[in-house]
């Protein structure tokens, strides 16, 4: 794979020119010191909760790049409970600050077009997604091939203008069936969300993210391949220009293989 030969050259200057070819990313700053670091891909853990529209945007971008660069972006989807993260860290949702909440919804409309992800604020926002996140947790355990599609479908039902309610078991059942899970299997998954082992699994993932520095969603933990590579955390849907070059992948905007809409 040609990308395995990519090099990240860092020259210390104030400007940061960035090439968009697949082999080289050139970064500079002011001390005029130069060094080279080979990059050969690595692991990306995406922690998310479907209550967050920003996590939806970040989820769509990172899954696009994982499909475009499967050898370099080794993606693990990690559903966690954002309410638990907020409580543990003392963070508060933007909507609790009136000016920030008003800005959030207007900015979401701008971001919707840029990312190619239709967004419509649900009438019942914010909602409690604990059941939905437990469903994603057990889906990851028992039907991992459906995790990405089910996550996306839950977001579409909540944020895609469908006016769906993903807090009720019957709505979650419909979402499961939409992604190809049989009705009987979906019922089994929903029954499993009441098991203590599943509840504990979601709690453990949430606590692990907080211990590693998470305070909101989406949160990405990135570790490039190599014995000396350190884990780096990125928060938000607007840090891909920093995250992807760490893996030797060029940031070509939110549509690495051309503009499309969900």
Q: Sum up the overall morphology in one term.
A: globular
Mean pLDDT: 86
Order of helices and strands: EEEEHEHHHHHHHEEH
**pLDDT under 50 segments (min length 5)?**
1-38
> Terminal Cα separation, in Å?
29 Å
Number of helices: 9
Proportion of residues in extended strands: 5-15%
Strand order of the largest sheet: 5-4-6-7
| Global structural class | alpha/beta
Largest sheet: 4 strands, mixed
| Rounded Rg | 19 Å
User: In percent, how helical is the residue content?
Assistant: 40-55%
Query: Care to count the β-strands?
Result: 7
Summarize the structure in words.
It is built from nine helices and seven strands, in the order ββββαβαααααααββα. With 262 residues, the chain is α/β, with parallel strands linked by helices. Helix 1 runs parallel beside helix 3. It is globular. It starts with 6 loop residues before the first strand and ends in a 19-residue tail after the last helix.
How is the topology of this model organized?
Blueprint: E1 7-11, E2 24-28, E3 34-38, E4 42-48, H1 53-68, E5 73-79, H2 82-89, H3 98-115, H4 130-142, H5 147-159, H6 169-178, H7 183-192, H8 196-211, E6 219-224, E7 232-235, H9 240-243
Helix pairs in contact: 1-3, 1-5, 2-8, 4-5, 4-8, 5-6, 6-7
Feature tags:
7 strands; four-stranded mixed sheet; 9 helices; alpha/beta; globular; three-stranded mixed sheet; disordered N terminus; single chain; 262 residues
In short:
The protein has 262 residues and is α/β, with parallel strands linked by helices.
């Amino acid at each position: 794979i040609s990308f395995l030969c990519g090099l990240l050259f860092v020259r210390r200057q104030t400007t940061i020119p960035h090439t968009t070819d697949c082999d080289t990313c050139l970064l500079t700053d002011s001390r005029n010191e130069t060094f080279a670091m080979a990059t050969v891909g690595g692991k990306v853990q995406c922690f998310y909760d479907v209550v967050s529209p920003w996590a939806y945007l970040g989820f769509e971008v990172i899954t696009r790049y994982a499909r475009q660069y499967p050898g370099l972006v080794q993606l693990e989807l990690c559903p966690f409970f954002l309410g638990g993260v907020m409580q543990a860290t003392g963070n508060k949702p933007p909507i609790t600050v009136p000016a920030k909440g008003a800005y959030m919804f207007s900015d979401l409309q701008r971001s919707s077009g840029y990312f190619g992800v239709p967004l419509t604020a649900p009438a019942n926002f914010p909602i409690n997604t604990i059941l939905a996140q437990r469903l994603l947790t057990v889906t990851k355990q028992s039907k991992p091939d459906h995790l990405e599609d089910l996550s996306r479908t839950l977001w579409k039902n909540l944020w895609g203008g469908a006016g769906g309610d993903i807090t009720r078991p019957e709505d979650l059942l419909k979402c499961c069936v939409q992604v190809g899970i049989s009705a009987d299997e979906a019922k089994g998954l929903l029954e499993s969300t009441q098991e203590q082992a599943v509840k504990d699994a979601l709690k453990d993932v949430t606590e692990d993210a907080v211990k590693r520095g998470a305070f909101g969603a989406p949160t990405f933990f990135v570790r490039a391949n190599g014995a000396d590579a350190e884990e780096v955390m990125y928060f938000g849907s607007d840090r891909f220009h920093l995250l992807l070059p760490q893996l030797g992948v060029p940031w070509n905007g939110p549509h690495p293989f051309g503009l499309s809409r969900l």
